[in-house]
Design goal:
With 300 residues, the protein is an alpha/beta fold. Helix content is 43%, strand content 14%. The strands form 3 sheets. The protein has a 4-stranded parallel beta sheet with strand order 1-2-3-4, with helices on both faces. Strands 7-8-9 form a 3-stranded antiparallel beta sheet, covered by helices on one side. A hairpin with a 2-residue loop joins strand 5 and strand 6. The radius of gyration is 21 Å and the shape is globular.
Length: 300
């Protein structure tokens, strides 16, 4: 497995310019060439998904499969402008309480939020627990170093402009991608607007919702994400029906009836509170089967 840090991230250099998706896709292809990897399986989060899609559109033969995790594309950002999302009001209230003049309906508010919190971090200004929780997965254990690196990227390079520009991904090019694709989107993420748009673009893709998750779920819930990836790579998810009963032309996001939350397992029930908690997935499956077998069918 190879982890690729984009320009200005991790230990990669931060040149003055060159942060457009085309530039970063060129970097990615250069890395594949350097490592003598002709074709690879990709797992890409956030802007990394834009970069992977740019590579895929120009060199599809180099992509064996793609897991897209909470990636927003420009076309969907425009369509989602000024729309409310699940945590919209809650996060807006947190920003207002912190005196941060950002509108969560701004399609690029995520980048701006990181910058505002990074400035507070560098100034050693108070950061409320609620505000810190929003960006904690991004700050990580080295908050000051991460904040400093992000501000250098925003203030000393063209990244701030290029990361919020048009990524030039178009529906026609995306429709041509025929390799296996799984799209993961968090229930509580603004990026879900992109997922909704992509439902009609890739009829062969698996679309999975990540229950009660925000944008950083690959960091906060890695075990769950890796479990979904393994099922995708094993072609288990490809066998699921892509349409709801009674809606033959309407694709939708799927989620498992048995799910993990906080280290415990639950069974989602359509007519009430979930069953659980249970210590393991097998226990939850057994209890769900027992529950369904003992229910009395309704009669007219």
């Amino acid at each position: 497995m190879t982890l690729f840090d984009l320009r200005g991230h991790g230990r990669s250099d931060a040149p003055a310019a060159g942060y457009r998706p085309d530039d970063l896709a060129h970097d990615l292809e250069g890395l594949l060439d350097h490592l003598a990897i002709g074709r690879a399986h990709f797992m890409a989060h956030s802007y990394g998904g834009v970069v992977s899609l740019k590579l895929a559109c120009s060199r599809p033969e180099r992509v064996a499969s793609l897991v897209l995790a909470d990636t927003h594309i420009a076309a969907a950002r425009s369509n989602g402008h000024a729309r409310d999302w699940r945590d919209c009001e809650r996060i807006q209230a947190i920003l207002d309480d912190a005196g941060i003049a950002l509108d969560v309906r701004d399609p690029y508010f995520g980048y701006k939020l990181l910058t505002e919190v990074a400035r507070l971090q560098q100034a050693e200004a108070p950061v409320s627990p609620a505000l810190r929780e929003l960006v904690a997965p991004w700050l990580g254990a080295r908050g000051n170093r991460t904040a400093s690196q992000w501000l250098a990227l925003m203030d000393r390079t063209t990244a701030a402009h290029e990361l919020t520009g048009d990524d030039a991904l178009d529906v026609v090019s995306l429709r041509r991608l025929r390799f296996p694709i799984m799209a993961l989107y968090g229930d509580r993420s603004q990026a879900r607007f992109t997922g909704d748009e992509l439902l009609s673009v890739w009829p062969h893709a698996a679309f999975r919702r990540v229950r009660d998750a925000g944008h950083f779920f690959p960091t906060t819930r890695p075990t769950e994400v890796l479990r979904l990836c393994q099922r995708f790579w094993d072609n288990e998810l490809g066998e699921a029906a892509p349409h709801r009963v009674g809606e033959p032309d309407a694709r939708h996001f799927r989620s498992d009836r048995i799910y993990e939350s906080g280290g415990h397992w639950y069974c989602l029930m359509r007519d009430g509170a979930p069953l659980g908690p249970f210590p393991a997935a097998e226990t939850a499956r057994r209890e769900l089967a027992n529950h369904l077998s003992t229910r009395t069918p309704a009669t007219a």
